[in-house]
Specification:
3 domains; 7-stranded mixed sheet; about 25% strand; globular
């Protein structure tokens, strides 16, 4: 028999070993009545800076008699532990006469391929970029020299767009597969704590190892992985997918017959959206958000969030999430990277894209986050499905021009941005974006409503987070890849409207945002395919 106890308060200075005593007090039972205790969730409560604590949810095992007593007399919030329903895979009956192809090896493709391989379906995974080890070298070279490899960069290659990230594993979706994603990551080398932390993160350094380990597992389970292989065309028979065409970095074009294809190519792949439009797949322009990155000294953010407890070893670097309105649009901080770096995330020539990453330790000098403003069809200047994509491309090209070329990003100090003038250098906060920044008037490369929204946001956020408007804080443009600018329409079976057997999946399809939700969408697509075809 088991009970779940919620909201057990463990003060910052207390050891976790005292948790059983705290649980017993909440149950109104002696400590030795608890036969077993398991931690489900740990969250940080920093609402009161003079009383920072951790809040625990735990499941305890008691004798049936003690459980009845505890349910009646407990001082804390207690309920019977919920049974986790087990999900048994469903296998279809149609024999597999051609392989199942997974296009793209970001979180969506990786988890889809893993599940298929685990269940004996031997998927063929096609990835335009390189294996994560080789990719790391290309990314490092780009950040050092500003010379971009358009097929191997911070967006394209094994591990997908999130491989060089903070590795935040939070998600707002309520899907039981999210727990499976965390468990699989832990099984392949991520720290076990991700399973119960309310805001887990693993950082670029660990994520890269996990991705490699998952690929090796897919290969061991009979899957095939082909790098340097870009999906460039589809072949249909009637209304169903029959084969896909790929372009290889070495030997040209090839036709690959397939029973089904999970298309998990992410939202960086503009060429894929254009190919789908040409193939008559139903697409829709989608709202997204765009703006800039802001960098503050990590210590300033830690002090604002944790007061005198800043620097406490159990707290790590502080996070924030802030939101407000500007001119009737939402403006909010996005993808905050405590103790991290602003990074160059271009995947196309002639466009500057910024984003953020951290290592597991989150111990770099600055903390950064995007400040983004909602954009939608009224801003796109056209109403075709690719109008949002062109809007995004223009933002990135304008930032490239203002930076002066070589993927140098336009940047400014907050005081200058707020005053609407150009910066001519930087002060105590040093920009971390590599290959480098050009001090200028960042507002020049942003549409007026985005520049105004960013300014309004900074003023509003500084009322909630002291020092947010630090005059020397650094602004770097442009943050444009928050979510997909296009949605690939799916029917109730998850197949593309306009082509049966094609499963648009993950963030690029417009149905996920973030590592965990993309991975969950990938698993769902794999389950749908398994339910259609017999297990080999
Ligand atoms: C710098 C950065 C930091 C981020 N930080 C976080 C974070 O901390 N937490 C979080 O939850 N999310 C974060 N994100 C977002 C997260 O990375 C994405 O939501 C997630 O990666 C989407 O997964 P996906 O599999 O749908 O697509 P992607 O990750 O974009 O993967 C698509 C894959 O398809 C491949 N591909 C593209 N075109 C083709 C083609 N034609 N043929 C074959 N292969 C192709 C690409 O090379 C890529 O590997 C971050 C993103 C970036 C860029």
């Amino acid at each position: 028999m088991a009970l779940t106890l919620f909201d057990l308060k463990l003060p910052l200075h207390a050891e976790e070993s005292s948790l059983k005593r705290i649980a017993a007090r909440a149950l109104a039972m002696p400590e030795n009545a608890i036969q077993d205790m398991r931690i489900n969730r740990i969250s940080l409560d920093a609402r009161r800076k003079d009383d920072i604590s951790f809040r625990y949810t735990v499941t305890v095992t008691l004798s049936p008699k003690d459980e009845t007593y505890a349910l009646r007399h407990a001082n804390g919030h207690v309920s019977r532990a919920a049974e986790t329903p087990s999900r048994v895979p469903v296998y279809g009956e149609r024999p597999l006469t051609a392989p199942i192809v997974v296009a793209g090896m970001g979180p969506a493709g990786l988890f889809a391929a893993y599940l298929l391989a685990q269940n004996g379906y031997k998927p063929v995974v096609l990835e335009r970029g390189k294996a994560v080890e080789a990719r790391q070298e290309d990314v490092a070279r780009f950040w050092k020299t500003g010379v971009l490899d358009v097929s191997s960069n911070a967006v394209f290659g094994e591990g997908g767009a999130g491989a060089f990230s903070d590795g935040k594993l939070t998600t707002r979706i309520k899907d039981p597969r999210a727990a499976d994603v965390l468990a699989l990551l832990a099984e392949h080398g991520a720290p076990d704590e991700i399973i119960h932390m309310a805001k887990p993160h693993i950082g670029t350094d660990k994520l890269v190892q996990v991705v490699r380990n998952m690929r090796l597992a897919i290969l061991r389970m009979g899957g095939t992985v082909r790098f340097g292989t870009r999906v460039c065309g589809l072949e249909r028979q009637g209304d169903a997918l029959q084969a896909i065409y790929v372009e290889k970095s070495t030997e040209g074009r090839e036709r690959i017959p397939c029973a089904a294809c999970i298309l998990a190519t992410g939202h960086g792949a503009s060429d894929v959206y254009r190919m789908l439009a040409e193939e008559g797949i139903a697409l829709q322009a989608k709202p997204f958000a765009a703006g800039v990155r802001i960098e503050h000294p990590r210590e300033l953010i830690d002090r604002s969030q944790f007061g005198t407890f800043a620097g406490h070893p159990r707290l790590g670097a502080a996070e924030y999430h802030l939101a407000d309105q500007s001119g009737g649009r939402g403006v909010y901080t996005f993808c905050m990277c405590p103790g991290g770096y602003v990074v160059a995330c271009a995947s196309e020539q002639g466009g500057v894209v910024t984003n953020g990453m951290s290592h597991y330790a989150r111990d770099a000098e600055n903390s950064n986050a995007a400040i983004v403003v909602q954009v939608d069809a009224r801003d796109y200047g056209a109403d075709d499905p690719l109008a949002g994509l062109r809007f995004r491309e223009k933002l990135e090209q304008d930032a490239f021009r203002l930076g002066g070329g070589g993927f140098v990003a336009p940047a400014a100090q907050v005081a200058d941005l707020l005053a609407g003038r150009a910066s001519n250098g930087f002060g105590s906060v040093r920009p971390t974006y590599a290959p480098g920044v050009r001090a200028c008037d960042v507002g020049e490369c942003l549409p007026g409503f985005i520049a105004a929204g960013v300014r309004d946001g900074i003023r509003a956020f500084s009322r909630r987070l002291q020092g947010f408007d630090l005059p020397e804080a650094v602004i770097t443009a442009v943050e444009s890849r928050t979510s997909a600018p296009v949605r690939v329409l799916r029917d109730k079976n998850g197949e593309a409207e306009g082509m049966l057997g094609l499963y648009p999946t993950g963030e690029g399809a417009g149905y996920a945002g973030g590592i965990v939700s993309a991975a969950v969408d990938g698993m769902r697509a794999a389950e749908r395919i398994m339910a259609r075809f017999a297990r080999p």
